[in-house]
Amino acid sequence: MKVKLASNYGFCFGVKRAIKIAQDYKDSATMGPLIHNQDEINRLKNDFNVGLYTDLKEVKDKDTVIIRTHGIPKNDLKTLKERDAKVINATCPFVTTPQQIVKKMSKEGYSILIFGDKKHPEVKGVASYAQNPDDVHIILDINELKDINFKKNKIATVAQTTKKKEKYLEIINYLILRNKEIRVFNTICDATFENQDAARALSKEVDIMVVIGGKHSSNTKQLHAICLENCQDSYLIENETELDKQWFKNKNLCGITAGASTPDWIIQKVVKTIENI
Amino acid sequence: MKVKLASNYGFCFGVKRAIKIAQDYKDSATMGPLIHNQDEINRLKNDFNVGLYTDLKEVKDKDTVIIRTHGIPKNDLKTLKERDAKVINATCPFVTTPQQIVKKMSKEGYSILIFGDKKHPEVKGVASYAQNPDDVHIILDINELKDINFKKNKIATVAQTTKKKEKYLEIINYLILRNKEIRVFNTICDATFENQDAARALSKEVDIMVVIGGKHSSNTKQLHAICLENCQDSYLIENETELDKQWFKNKNLCGITAGASTPDWIIQKVVKTIENI
Predict the structure, then answer these.
(1) What Rg, from alpha-carbon coordinates, does chain B have?
(2) Which residue is catalytic, options A122, A166, A205, A229?
(3) Rounded distance, CA A220 to CA A232, Å?
(4) Is the N end or the C end of chain B the one with fewer CB atoms within 10 Å?
């Protein structure tokens, strides 16, 4: 079977970078799971002895602790450093940017608006960099703006890196009409959308489409749904053991894409298996 | 005939203020016509000896020169001051604001975008405050953005005070998606739109509507068009001599509004004449 990979798939820049950092620091531990893929976490443990902490209290003096791509709240970072741990910062540079923007804008006297999910670790981290916690507002929908009392009529805005631009613009437009100055920082990362665009394009030109990723991963399911729009024979699998030869009968070209938490070595195993069908 | 005035009509805050300033400085002259109404310019000349310069070269030492609401380019102001003229600044505060924003943002290293008409005196004045004239861009339409090469990917935006917010937002949204930081200043003044909204509301509740203003004034014609939508018997007049008693037959209530360059004393004459019909 002939195979064609999507022009963008799998890990984004920040995740690739974090995994490389983890591999460089054998015998370290990550603060929270590095990515949402147990196979990859097992590999890092088995091959590089990279462990996993789920709570700051577990960290001991002289431990080497890796901060994951989402970043962590400012005070947690401070606590880690006070505990005399060696801190390796694998926060994605696209997440460090909004952290630093919030810090600077808050210092310059702006009210802060974050478009994102207040329960998401990335957003918790970004929000923590504000000087005045009372004047940082986190929303997911324009309707939440009505209930907010900004302390200033100059507002700086950032967005969670994985959010949709259209909704961010809606929120900004609302603010512009009601305030003197809005300082808009475009902190949305294109990686998720580039994977989606590439899956959409590829699914139009192949006979069968295989999407690799966690069955409960929302971005993988989204990729699968996009592929199904253009290619009826689109299948979602977690690894090569789930492939069924029957799918490939009378097909010539198989397209492949993968969710943002799918490591390359799993993708390569799937590619090789399909090529041998 | 019973008369009802629109809740907003005629001069805006900035024009009222400029006329008051002109009256306070007898024997002065304005740099360009203070407003687009010859009757009012004649009144200022006859009652307060306020003259009119059309060119900087006409200004002599020790002259008292009034800057009109639109403001003037930075270098013209400098020339006036060098000529040892006494400069009275009647620039509308809502126009001084974008001038100062452009000055500050340009100094802080932002590219500047002005949404407005590059031939309009207000816009010429605002643009002149930029430190780097090569990086100030003036557009009326989003399509013009494609041809612009901003020197920075941080851009500060201001709008001509009389422009429509919807088009400003369109332009800003385009910029946000393509640049790291957009610093949006809402410099649009509501006065024009408040007169329009008030005319719309009033024209729905009266039997006849009289719009007072120049027959060639675009904002007066706009008011007339809005009134005609709701009240078939809407008339545009320049002063009370144009009123026709026939219009008021079998009518009970007459609504009145006026364009942004119509002085109050003309409006009062019209009101009195109609009340006596």
Answers:
(1) 21
(2) A122
(3) 17
(4) C
Mind listing the pLDDT tens digit of every residue in chain A (277 residues)? 999 999 999 999 999 999 999 999 999 999 999 888 888 999 999 999 999 999 999 998 889 999 999 999 999 999 998 888 899 999 999 999 999 999 999 999 999 999 999 999 999 999 999 999 999 999 999 999 999 999 998 999 999 998 989 999 999 999 999 999 999 999 999 888 899 999 999 999 999 999 999 888 878 999 999 999 999 999 999 999 999 999 999 999 999 999 988 999 999 999 999 999 9
Contact A11, A260 (CB under 8 A): yes
Give residues with Cβ within 8 angstroms of A104, minimum separation 6. Answer: none
Long-range contacts of B123-126 (CB under 8 A, 24+ apart): B123/B160, B124/B73, B125/B70, B125/B71, B125/B72, B125/B73, B125/B74, B125/B91, B125/B95, B125/B99, B126/B71, B126/B95, B126/B98, B126/B99, B126/B102, B126/B158, B126/B160
**In contact, B195 and B166? CB cutoff 8 Å:** no
DSSP single-letter state for residue B68: P
Q: Is B5 helix (H, G, I), strand (E, B) or coil?
A: strand
> Is the Cβ pair B165, A186 closer than 8 Å?
no
Nearest residue in B to A170, CA atom = B173
Cα(A253)–Cα(B122) distance, integer angstroms: 62
The number of C-beta contacts closer than 8 angstroms across A and B is 48
Q: Name residues whose C-beta falls within 8 Å of residue A160's C-beta, 6 or more positions apart in sequence.
A: A114, A115, A116, A117, A120, A122, A123, A126, A187, A188
Shortest Cα distance, chain B CAs vs residue A126, angstroms: 17
Considering only the beta carbons, identify the residue of B165, B181, B186 that sits closest to A184.
B181
Element (H, E) at A103: helix A93-107
- The closest of A30, A8, A21 to A259, measured between CA atoms, is A8
* DSSP one-letter code for A69: T
Q: How far apart are CA B121 and CA B117, in angstroms?
A: 9
| Distance, CA of B123 to CA of A57 (rounded, Å) | 60
Give the alpha-carbon dihedral of B36, B39, B45, B47, to 10 degrees.
Answer: -130
Beta bridge partners of residue B51, listed in sequence order: B29
- Tokens 């001599």 found at: B241
